[in-house]
Amino acid sequence: MAEELAGCTVLMVAHRGAGLIGSDLRVNMACGRICTVTKYRKQGDDGDDNEGMAVGERRGNAM
Asked: Residue 18 and residue 3: Cα distance in Å, rounded?
């Protein structure tokens, strides 16, 4: 488990250092999956607080 956590930490740091704009990395430790989440930025505040969706995820389903 410690090795998996260390690998995820390194991956997250590498992703943050890449400077990708508009994307974030989500690690689902329960399933061991890594999903890229794209943040959708809107012009106005329409009350929708969902920042993005993971691959294979539908709105309303928490990951």
From this structure: 23
